[in-house]
Amino acid sequence: MNKMTRTMRGAVLALAASVALSGQALAQDSFKVGSTPSGVPFTFLDVKTNQIDGVMVDIINAIGEQEGFTPVVEATQWSALIPSLTSGKIDVIAAAMYATEERAKVVAFTDPVYSYGEGLFVAKDDTTAYASLDDLEGKVVGAQVGTAYVGPLQASGKLREVRVYDTIADIMRDVSLGRIDAGFGDRPIVAYQLTQGAADVRLVPEYKSTIVGNVAIAVRQNEPELLARMNAGIAKIKESGKLDEIIAEWGIE
Question: Which of the residue ranges 3-12, 127-136, 141-150, 244-253 would you say has the lowest mean pLDDT?
Fold first, then answer.
């Protein structure tokens, strides 16, 4: 074996080893996942474990099992989710986030994993059957910062004021104390929190959601391979029934 042959053979072996190691790393990689600590039951801080838990955490973990990566879930405030993703602090957003056209200008969304609309809640002693914004004309309401509800509520021209809050819990508190007339939040989140003994408010069953959207996972726009990987995992958990199982376990069917 001459020097050139030995050199070429060494290069081939080195390349093969590199490919093998890359394949191993690909199968065992991890991604930082931003999830909010206050979006029960989609994402929330479990005080017993001090870890973020919820529907979207179970979904991203199920996708990771299918696609061979480990999600490292980090508590991220709602308003900081997209800035944290675009700045590289996190790699993935797994939260109760609508895949809106406006957000899609900044991030890349996967296929939908769940769909829902806004829920209306009022004080328990308010027994009015509010069916639409027309029934709330002239009232002061609250909505969570960064949600898809704030803009349409403000633009409706029906409401006297739309106050913006950091969390649904903050809105519930002010509704129960009479500081505002009503609150809007993600319907399944509000419904779940009320079953867990949340503030002294009630979800209005007559109210029909008008701002309905699809919840999806988000990645950076310049990472089409990661987007494809997420979508492949979503397709697998849909086909296997795992996604339906997760949704049923959290009682948000």
Answer: 3-12
Position 13 pLDDT exceeds 70? no
Q: Is the peptide bond before 41 cis (omega within 30 degrees of 0)?
A: yes
Are 224 and 200 within 8 A, CB to CB?
A: no
**How much is the pTM?**
0.70
| 218-224 mean pLDDT | 97
3-class DSSP state for residue 46? Answer: strand
Mean pLDDT computed over every residue of the chain: 88
Provide the sign of the torsion angle of the four alpha carbons 213, 219, 223, 225, taken in this order.
negative
Task: State which amino acid sits at residue 109.
Answer: F
Tokens of 62: 């199920």
DSSP 145-202: TTSTTHHHHHHTS--SEEEEES-HHHHHHHHHTTSSSEEEEEHHHHHHHHHTT-SSEE
Q: Which tens digits make up the pLDDT trace of 55-99? A: 999 999 999 999 999 999 999 999 999 999 999 999 999 998 999
SS3 132: coil
Tokens read off for 168: 């649904």
Task: Report pLDDT for 198.
Answer: 66
Interior CA angle at 129 toward 38 and 176, to 5°?
A: 40
**The token pair that represents 251 in the structure block:** 């009682």
Q: What is the number of residues in the chain?
A: 253
Q: Identity (one letter) of the amino acid at 45?
A: L
Residue 241 Cα distances to 144, 210, 218, 245, 246, angstroms: 32, 29, 22, 6, 9
Residues 71, 49: Cα–Cα separation, whole Å: 17
